[in-house]
Amino acid sequence: MNAPIEPHALKSTDKPLSEIYDLALLDLDGVVYRGKNPVEHAAEGIGDAESHGMQISYTTNNPSRYPRTVAEQLEGFGLTVADNQVITSAIVAARMLAQMLPPRSKVLVVGREHLCEEIAKNGLVPVHTAAENPDAVIQSWHQDLSWAELAEASYAIHNGARYFVTNKDLTIPREGGIAPGNGAMQIPVTVATGKKPEASAGKPEAAMYDESRMLFSQTADLVPVEKSLPCGDRLDTDIEAANRGGYDSLVVLTGVATPASIITAEPIHRPTYVTADLRGLNLPQPAVTRNADGSYSCNAATARICGNELSITIDGVPSEHPDTLDGLRAACDCVWQAMDDQGLDAGTLRIPEFPQALRGCGD
Q1: Catalytic residue chosen out of the listed positions 27, 233, 248, 326
Q2: 40 alpha-carbon distance from chain centroid
Q3: Catalytic residue from among 14, 22, 29, 248
Q4: Which one is predicted more confidently, 48 or 178?
Q5: Residue 160: what pLDDT?
Q6: Residue 67: which domain range?
Q7: Whose CA, among 22, 29, 132, 263, lies 20 to 30 Å from 209?
Q8: Is 29 a catalytic site residue?
Q9: What does the mean pLDDT of the chain come to?
Q10: For residue 74, is it within any domain?
Q11: Annotated catalytic, 210?
Q12: Which of 137, 167, 200 is the last residue of a domain?
């Protein structure tokens, strides 16, 4: 078991992350693609990182698609991807169930063929109705999830089946915006049965990254935790999983996480590094310094707290809409220190409104 890390300040580097870490564990939805569409600059950042010698593994909480299907989509973005580079929560969930259930146990699958096949590979028997008397239920997300599937899961749990899930993402980035994820679809089952999932295979469990490193490294030496860098767009899954497992982490602003949510994050949800998109893999991460007056500076940006207001200046000029990553970095360390050492209630803090696109990531 890796020692959990709860970061209280961002780290800095004098070299690009792709030269410091050997393996990037990249989330997919909101980081590399949104549904069928590529995330801006993602393929560029990945290609540059690989040219620096960084290995890439794709880790996704989406259990509905085969690794080959995911790889083909990524190849359509101009990337070169082997099947073993894609680790889904279906793969990890099946391995988890095999450890927790006797061989040949029947598992009611709320999900697609990929999850069924992985369960069968691990010595369990996938079934689809409560009438088959399953020993357990595994609930996952797919875009055609129906009431009938949730009802069968509820019936089975009422009859004594153990309840597991592939992941607990409440939302998922899609082409049209943010949509309900697997965590949201677990609410009806929990309400109907009074039972919460016993365990989850996907992030925020650190096992997702640990299993991904093992599966990715089956034909090579296992990359150590300290040389692996999880990258994601969600604080409550990608970043929490990294912190639980003792990994450094990088959050990108192309999906769910917003500047305000990062600035006010509790320790377990705080990233090691923050960047706009995956081009940040190939840039040094600048230092944030504490000034004598209690403010925090990152290059030309300075953040300070006055009463219940966070103020940010860029080149000495106050900004209501700071548009630099350095402003965000300075704000993070400023507010995190006040939360941890002074008991600041971040929910009461007025925060400047950052624009969607921030300068400082190769622009």
Answers
A1: 27
A2: 18
A3: 29
A4: 48
A5: 98
A6: 17-88+205-282
A7: 263
A8: yes
A9: 93
A10: yes
A11: no
A12: 200
